[in-house]
Design a protein that fits this description.
Radius of gyration of chain A: 23 Å
Number of helices of chain A: 14
Largest interface: A-B, 72 and 78 residues
Helix content of chain A: over 70%
CATH class of chain B: Mainly Alpha
CATH architecture of chain B: Orthogonal Bundle
Number of domains of chain A: 1
Shape of chain B: globular
CATH superfamily of chain A: MetI-like
Number of strands of chain A: 0
Shape of chain A: globular
Distance between the termini of chain B: 31 Å
Radius of gyration of chain B: 21 Å
Number of strands of chain B: 0
CATH class of chain A: Mainly Alpha
Helix content of chain B: over 70%
Order of helices and strands of chain A: HHHHHHHHHHHHHH
Oligomer: heterodimer
Structural class of chain B: mainly alpha
Chain lengths: 274, 234
């Protein structure tokens, strides 16, 4: 479609203005607020024991949840795309796999509370064996796994579908075992899809608040992840807590900019291999 | 995954159908649903228009920094939602450097939701726009159609499924959104915040009742999306 120069510039200004007001200005301002008293002050806030404990808990939860989701996601995508037969089970799996995307994270938290909490379906069983799930780290890991479950599946399944299974069949004909076929043929085909899914689930795992908030006991130094720390600090009024809120969120924002950079690189890589 | 969600449904109906109906039609619940659904509809509508516009500029326009802008679109997916809420308070809240004070109002809720759902429409329209055959547009133009007519009659019909599915995803996300609204919503009664408040005060039954209604809405959107997807594929 040929558009006049004026309308083209107008559209461009409108789109960029919208993005600036919605994305760039707010994010820039948080960085500025965090560092307005100097880098040293912000650094001091980021290295308080509570902040360090929160950062390491965030990382711990992600380190447990993401690999589990990756293995499950690849397996699930294989079942969905390569599974034999047209069973009802597969259609159901296909329909339910997106549930975590559309169910509110708070509902996820509530669900875990009802099942693993005190008086819940399995809660008392775990408690009797001396294991706290809800209001402790295991529950937070479960919540994180739940909300970041579909990312790997949704990235890998289309790649598998597009690649077809001719190469895999060729490998099988040449005498490769199914494990060899997977490792030598399937895995190299889907690796960029897997990587992209892993980055997306890592971002979600590090940033999740709703589901984790419900099943955390919200004790600083024990069950506070970085987002929870921000949430808790923000409700305490006071100017120095506010700056520490900005410092913690700058920390998260820096992490997510890294994630964004990796996403962009991987995205370009993935397009090229297609 | 299914067991925990089934537990929510069972809890909601644990007092019988009457108790569920009573909890699900209470004034607080109805008001929260009204606010949440209307805000989500507004967000889906604005997101559809602005998302299409942004995708258009990213695909069809050429200007320095276009790749950088393209990469920035994914920022709301990468940025933790609580930080998203905080950034918007920093700019449009008390002490706003631009003199706009929206925080703790419904407008703030809409802005926060627009932020977190921005990538949905852009990312679903962009690939379709790239693949779009330009010959039909040129044919329309050579037959004397103006830019507006070409867009409305030729381009828009091709983009419609992508715009609709992006907007539906944005709607579904908005209905359940919590993180970005937790700080900015203030006293605005958003469904997910009401559920959280119910959980905090120990009223699991009410929380479960509202949760079931929300899940039903999400499932409907999901089902509609799958039908839309099936239609596009054929």
């Amino acid at each position: 479609m040929r558009t006049s120069r004026r309308s083209r510039l107008g559209l461009r200004a409108l789109a960029l203005g919208y993005l600036a007001a919605l994305l760039l200005l707010p994010v820039g301002l948080v960085f500025w607020r965090a560092f307005e008293h100097g880098f040293g002050v912000a650094w001091a806030w980021m290295t308080t024991p509570a902040a360090i404990a929160a950062l390491s808990l965030s990382v711990l939860v992600a380190v447990i949840a993401v690999p589990l989701n990756t293995v499950f996601g690849v397996g699930c995508a294989l079942v969905l795309v390569r599974g034999r037969g047209r069973g009802r089970g597969r259609a159901l799996l296909d329909a339910f796999i997106d549930l975590p995307f559309v169910v509110s994270p708070v509902i996820v938290g509530l669900a875990l509370l009802l099942v693993y909490g005190q008086g819940g379906w399995f809660g008392d069983l775990f408690l009797r064996h001396g294991m706290r799930v809800v209001y402790a780290v295991p529950g937070m890991v479960l919540a994180t796994i739940f909300v970041s479950l579909p990312f790997v599946v949704r990235e890998v399944a289309p790649v598998l579908l597009e690649a077809g299974d001719q190469q895999e069949q060729a490998a099988a004909t040449l005498g490769a075992s199914s494990w060899q076929t997977f490792r030598r043929v399937t895995l190299p085909t889907i690796r960029w899809g897997v990587a992209y899914g892993v980055v997306l689930s890592t971002a979600r795992a590090l940033g999740e608040i709703g589901a984790v908030l419900v099943v955390s006991s919200n004790v600083a130094g024990q069950t506070l992840t970085l987002p929870l720390l921000i949430y808790q600090r923000d409700s305490q009024i006071g100017s120095d807590t506010l700056t520490s809120v900005y410092a913690a969120s700058t920390e998260l924002a820096v992490l997510s900019l890294l994630v964004l950079a990796v996403m962009t690189l991987l995205g370009a890589r993935r397009e090229r291999t297609r | 995954m299914l067991i925990p969600l089934a537990a929510v449904a069972l809890k909601a109906f644990s007092g019988g159908l009457g108790a569920f109906w009573h909890a699900a039609t209470g004034p607080v619940v109805l008001q929260a649903l009204g606010v949440t659904l209307s805000a989500s509809l507004i967000v889906a509508a604005i997101g559809a228009v602005m998302g299409t516009l942004v995708a258009w500029v990213l695909v069809r326009d050429a200007f320095p920094g276009r790749r950088l802008v393209g990469a920035l679109i994914d920022l709301p997916f990468a940025l933790p939602t609580i930080v998203a809420g905080l950034t918007l308070i920093a700019l449009y809240g008390p002490g706003s450097p631009v003199g706009v004070h929206l925080a703790y109002t419904r407008a703030a809720v809409v802005v926060a939701l627009l932020f977190v759902t921005l990538p949905f429409v852009v990312r679903s329209v962009q690939p379709v726009l790239i693949e779009l055959d330009r010959e039909a547009e040129e044919a329309a133009a050579s037959l004397g159609a103006g830019a507006g007519t070409t867009f409305r009659r030729v381009i828009l019909p091709a983009l419609r499924p992508a715009i609709l599915s992006g907007a539906a995803l944005a709607f579904a996300r908005s209905v359940g959104e919590f993180g970005s609204l937790a700080l900015i919503a203030g006293k605005v009664q958003i469904a997910s915040i009401v559920i959280y408040a119910d959980i905090e005060s120990g009223d699991l039954q009410s929380a479960a009742a509202l949760a079931v209604v929300l899940m039903a809405i999400s499932l409907l959107v999901l089902a509609a999306l799958r039908r839309l997807g099936a239609r596009v594929a054929h």
